[in-house]
Amino acid sequence: MLQRENSHKVRAQLLVTMYSICQVMPLAMDLHQKLVMLAYKHLSDSDHAVRQQCLSIIGKLGVQDKPLKSGEKSETPLQVLTEYAKDQDPRVRSSAFEAMLSLHQKGQVLEQSIYKQVYTALRDDSESVRLAALRLMWVLSHVYPENLIPLPDSEEKLRLVDDAFAKICQLVTDSSVQVRTTAAGLLGSLHLVSAHFLEQTLDKKLMSGLRRKRTAHERQKEQFVSGEWSSGKKWADDAPKEELDPEGVTLMDTGACGAFVHGLEDEFLEVRHAALDSLCELAGQSPTFAVLSLDYLVDMLNDEIESVRLNAVHSLHKISKDIVLREDQLETVLNGLEDSSTDIRQGLHQLLYSVSFATKMCLHLALQFLLKNLNKYPQDRLSIWRCSKALGENHSDLTLTLVPELLGTHPYFDIPEPDMDDPGYICVMILIFNSAVTQPTMTALFPEYTRRHYAYLRDSLPHLVPNVRHLQAVSSSQDIMSISGNRSPQQFLQQSLEKLEQVGRLDMEAAIKLMETTIRDLRRVVELDQNLVASAEFYSLYLQCQLLLTKAMKDKQWLVPAPLCPQHNLTVSATTKKVIDLSYQLEHLFIGCSAQDLASVYQLRLRAITLQLLVQLRGRYVSSVMNKNSIHQQCENYLLKLNILQRYFAANNLQPHSFTQALFSEMHKFEASKPGILAKFLQPLLFHHRVPCLILDNKVKQASAEIFEPAGGSDNPLRFTAGLALALNIDCMLENVEHVQCIQIQVKFPDTQTQLFTPRMSDFRHLNPLRHRLVTQVYLSHSLWSDPCQVEICIVLGYTMDGSKGPLAPQIGNSEKQCALQLCKPVKVYIMPRASKR
Q1: Dihedrals φ, ψ of 495, to 5°?
Q2: What distance in Å separates the CA atoms of residue 838 and residue 834, rounded to the nearest whole number?
Q3: CA 20 to 30 Å from 819, out of 37, 109, 587, 762?
Q4: d(Cα 38, Cα 69) in Å, to the nearest integer?
């Protein structure tokens, strides 16, 4: 068809179709080479669309080792693309450069000889050509960074990465927004560029007649300070006054000069975003450049767009370890604390965590602005307190000189005792107590009431107020460590788990006592080390399931006929239900479990379901057809779940436990219509095989939540008119949550009614892949109450009883109902619906 067709559009589409066929046949190299030769023959077509498709095919399927032959002429794919990069049609030229990029992405080596042609294309009239040449220039600067290239009209040579950096900088002032954005974004990845080229990007000086020409911004600033504006009537009022020595002026290419200054001052926010990202990345690679770029990054906090200001805050936080803020710079940063955006304010709080101050006045100024921020935005209380804690830890020497001023003490007169409920006073005391840890002489400056205030804050805010040696002799954590001896928490956990290896060789009573002791030890590990909380909790839950199943199976009432022990059936049913619920916690609350770990959890749940089925079969009464059908349905569901679990083990190539292996080997012999035979087989099999112990393959993490707002504990009820809505602000931090769409807010009313609220996805702030912040509102409504009562607010993780993590994971459960797992302790809030006023 391609040979017979006369229409250019159809020819181009035929080439696209043939390339699609080659894509679905990646190993048919002969077919690929035939298509490349066919595209090479049609490069002489007069239509630009056909030439574009031919060049694209050569770039995506061509191989440098296989030249293209036409008669006696033989060319490599790169030579063909270089030739057509000079085509008269800009669309063809851009396609040629994009095909070169495709060659590079396939692993083909691009020759340095195309560098000059690419540089020429950067000044092309077509935007698409400049974009393609810009990306190709970036590729060459990474392939040949240290190669030397001659400068025009000079005998000197320059590193290719430096020259490419200067050429890309020129495009930061391009007429096209997309070209400017791309150029500003590519600058950040050129880490090998020389230091003096980096410094030029922040130096934007206008020269006129070998004299420095002040910018319009500088002239307006001077006129504003002097109080008068130029009227144009004065002679030479704007003449440059700074004399320069002509011998000291170096005339050079202005390519890199002021590139980032232009990018940060661009009228389009896309360009400013890209320039900020690149400037931050290069500053992170060079501490010297970070100091030079600090003024420009701080100035971006005054941008008119909120997203740009937030980007500037994050950029400053990334390079905070290499910079020290001066007072003028710090004042600009602190002015952002009055921003209406919660994200910017809390981003600035996090910036102050790690930043270094030059003088004690900087610390005093920062504390003043934080207290001002606390008065204007009380909802930032916890974030400000954490910021104060970090300031005290990082600047203890500066805090020591400010203690009398911060506490307001007088050398001769007593001062009134401050109010302990004042959030501002708590902020100051958190700063001082964290500094006193490394400054023992500070405690001599404290008033008498400080010891009482320390004891109160230490108990109410233990995560913010540390143990100060001279104010409290021994902390609670030290007490715990003295109890556990000299062993580290990791050794204590390992020794506790090693004892479980003896469980299989002990009798039932001894095994139960050992498991109870190990569970108690694991709870102590949680108190010793926060890094081991997830692993200790996982082992503890698994052991609880193992302990419950062992106690249920050791009962001698299994030998008594079911009608004679109805209470035993109820007890075992409650035990199996608890084990199934705990197994869902193991599956959904912990991440990082291997396939083998999850398989152990599924087999644990299978034992509980088997035990549950045995109780139902022993207590059955088959006097009616309906009861027979119910028993048959339960047996059929059990066999179906067993089949699904077998497919899961086969798909993941896992080895099951002895109990599960016995079920897999005999399951084909059972029928749902014969429950008696199934019960006679399951009971001795279940009692013969004990639950094996578990050793985690990976380090696991536990999903959790921390509610900041509402704080709870207040005796003042929130009043609203009965029948209308009360908006309750929710602010919490989610840790180790993979799927935030499963997060819900649970509200439990005093009448035991429960409501679940699903937040919008826009209410989640993505901090990192496993850490999110949820800021939303919950609307509560109720009828009239006679007295104020508490409602419980909790963050829960929703799941279905037949849900699973993996695509082939078993759906082992007893129903499809929606369930929820609590991620934190409930917060109690007083509310009072009152009658409407008439």
Answers
A1: -70, -35
A2: 12
A3: 762
A4: 11
